[in-house]
Write a structure and sequence with these properties.
Elements: H1 3-14, H2 19-25, E1 29-30, E2 36-42, E3 46-47, E4 60-61, E5 64-71, E6 76-80, E7 84-92, E8 95-100, E9 106-111, E10 122-125, E11 130-135, E12 141-149, E13 158-159, H3 162-168, H4 173-179
Antiparallel strand pairs: 1-2, 2-5, 3-4, 5-12, 6-11, 6-13, 7-10, 7-12, 8-9, 8-11
């Protein structure tokens, strides 16, 4: 372990936060996909529906962002949205993010702060890709942020149907069973 990692680990051990503190401090609420969230930002300006691709059914904010907390032992169920979504790592243990692209290929990304071990601080999930997440073992929790552009609207949100997804992407069976 290098000096910077050692100093950070020591800092986190002395200044650790709990799930309860994060829920209270950030006023987080249960999310339909699992975990807890709160919208942190919504642009006051909109993109008109006629300027957006046809997959959108109305105007959308330029951009939105949320705080998202996922306790260990819980999953973010496989879902998709109609916009690109950038995930940002903040606190806690690493997060296993799994995406299924339009061809059924599973992409596994680990968000976290151990960049020497290949963890990423942020990752873009492309519009229309199925994705879900779970905290790594012994992580306690993962606290991340998600930025969506065009801005998020629940009309653009779809939780996967396990039977349909298995029929469409049989090679992604392990991911589908794990995250639904």
């Amino acid at each position: 372990m290098n000096r910077a990692t050692s100093e950070y680990t020591s800092y986190m051990n002395k200044n650790s936060v709990s799930i309860e503190i994060l829920i209270e401090k950030f006023k987080l609420l249960p999310h339909p996909e699992g975990g807890f969230f709160r919208e942190a930002y919504r642009s006051t300006e909109n993109i008109s529906a006629n300027a957006l691709p046809s997959r959108f059914n109305g105007d959308r904010s330029f951009s939105t962002s949320i705080y998202y907390l996922l306790p260990e032992g819980k999953n973010s169920k496989l879902h998709r949205i109609k916009s690109d979504e950038v995930w940002h790592f903040y606190l806690g243990g690493s997060l296993n993010l799994e995406c299924i692209d339009e061809k059924g290929t599973v992409h596994k990304i680990k968000l976290g702060q151990n960049i020497e071990a290949g963890e990423e601080l942020q990752h873009v999930v492309k519009a229309g890709h199925w994705f879900g997440a779970s905290p790594s073992s012994n992580s306690g929790f993962c606290f991340v942020g998600c930025t969506v552009s065009p801005g998020f609207d629940f009309a653009d949100f779809e939780i996967a149907d396990k039977t349909k997804l298995l029929a469409q992407f049989p090679n992604a069976r392990d991911t589908i069973h794990r995250l639904l």
